[in-house]
Amino acid sequence: MSEHLGEKLILHIPIGGGGIDLDFMTMVMSWVVIGILVALALLFRRSLRQPVEDKPNRVQALLDLTLHFVESQLTSNFASERLARELFPFIGTLFLFVLFSNWISIIPYFESPTKNLNVTFSFALLVFFMSQFYAARMKGVRRYLKGFLEPYAFMLPLNIIGEMARPLSHAFRLFGNMFGGAIMLSIIYSFAFLSFGFPLIVTGFYGLFQGAIQAFVFAILAVAYINVAVET
Fold it and tell me: pLDDT tens digits, residue range 84-125?
């Protein structure tokens, strides 16, 4: 199994004299994750169809408890309550997609989309643009642009480099952990004497526990980057 590590099924779409190369497996797995999330949303929505005055059913009670727990964990560090309310759908969706993208790798022959740097970098860029948008919106464009000249005007290049470094570190942190885990599991599976249940235990631990931790860290860092952009 380890001899195939790093091999990818690339879909080439010719355009003129060049073309576009797409990671076919990553695209398929991303759509599978989206399909799972949409299916779960529709399933839970159907379970919540009851009169408001009725006693909450078990599904609704569980969802309320889970939602409040996730909201308190992900949005408690926002600069204001208003900002937390506005950005919770974005942060929550980001967390769920990364979480299920990490978890899907425990299914045989399924690969995690977050093992691809293009995926993690696209989400990091999304967080970066959101942070800049809210910084300009809450500070005002003039004060936002002036912030790049503080504390001194000659710090402008360093401030810009510092801002651009955040999405890079954000993307590489998740990608490195997920890709490193895939390498570790491939090496473990390559040893025949470890093939009696041990790889399944490691896969379950890494896929579920470590996948949840990495999704949580990614979402918390998104909150931190937005807060830093808004407050400084």
Answer: 888 888 998 999 999 999 999 888 778 889 988 889 999 999
Structure tokens at 81: 């309550």
Residue 175 CB partners (closer than 8 Å, separation 6+)? 114, 115, 116, 117, 120, 121
CA 127 – CA 174 distance, rounded (Å): 14
Cα–Cα distance, 157 to 99 (Å, whole number): 35
**What Rg, from alpha-carbon coordinates, does the chain have?**
21
Buried b (16+ CB within 10 A) or exposed e, 96-120: bbbbbbbbbbbeeebbbbbbbbebb
Q: Report the alpha-carbon distance of residue 56 to residue 68 in Å, rounded.
A: 15
Tokens of 60: 């609704």
Tell me how far apart the alpha carbons of residues 98 and 218 are, in angstroms, rounded to a whole number.
Answer: 8
What is the Cα–Cα distance from 159 to 195, expressed in whole angstroms? 51
CA-to-CA distance for 116 and 213, rounded, in angstroms? 18
Residue 60 burial (CB < 10 Å; 0-12/13-18/19+)?
middle
5-38 per-residue burial string, b: 16 or more CB within 10 A, e: under 16: eeeeeeeeeeeeeeeeeebebbeebbebbeebbe
Q: Provide the whole-model pTM.
A: 0.82
In the numeric block, which tokens belong to residue 149? 């000249």
